[in-house]
UniProtKB/TrEMBL annotation:
The chain crosses the membrane at residues 25-43, 49-69, 90-115, 121-137. This is Diacylglycerol kinase (ATP). It is found in: Cell membrane. GO terms for cellular component: plasma membrane. A divalent metal cation binds at residue 70. The lineage of its organism: Bacteria, Thermotogati, Thermotogota, Thermotogae, Petrotogales. ATP binds at residues 3, 10, 70, 88-89. Substrate binds at residues 3, 63.
Amino acid sequence: MKRFINSVKYAAKGLSEIFNTQNNFRIQIFIGLLVLFISLFLNLTGIEFLWIAFAVMIVLLMESLNTVIEKIMDFINPEYNHIVGKIKDISAAIVLIAAVFSVVIGVIIFGRAIFNLSPKYGIIIAIIFLVIIVLFSKRR
Ligand SMILES: Nc1ncnc2c1ncn2[C@@H]1O[C@H](COP(=O)(O)OP(=O)(O)OP(=O)(O)O)[C@@H](O)[C@H]1O
């Protein structure tokens, strides 16, 4: 039991490290709180609440992963390095994909609950995102 409590303590230290050093994490927590709070006032189904919770948490998870990767890279190679730059860029891309996924979930669920919008608009956003990746990624 003591070991479990210690693990929770270390995890809490990790969380406060991310919170104190990452501006994006703080913004994502603020937006997440707002989204979760608003969802309480909407007539959502259990599954929709689940997707909203998932959307909020997946961004925080990926931002934490991004922070870990950045810190590892800074530790093993503090100097400017082309490969380090690429790894950090890809790590940032992971967060972006999660964020767009969350927006898609939000548009589908909030769109229906607030504006009676078709879920297809969420899919259209996902299509636009994927098309942008294809169009703007220059092949080398
Ligand atoms: N050591 C490095 N070598 C090459 N490019 C780097 C290096 N460090 C950062 N970069 C470039 O700068 C971008 C931002 O990196 P940085 O580590 O500052 O992340 P950040 O998103 O600003 O996070 P944080 O504010 O938490 O440090 C990277 O995606 C990469 O393109």
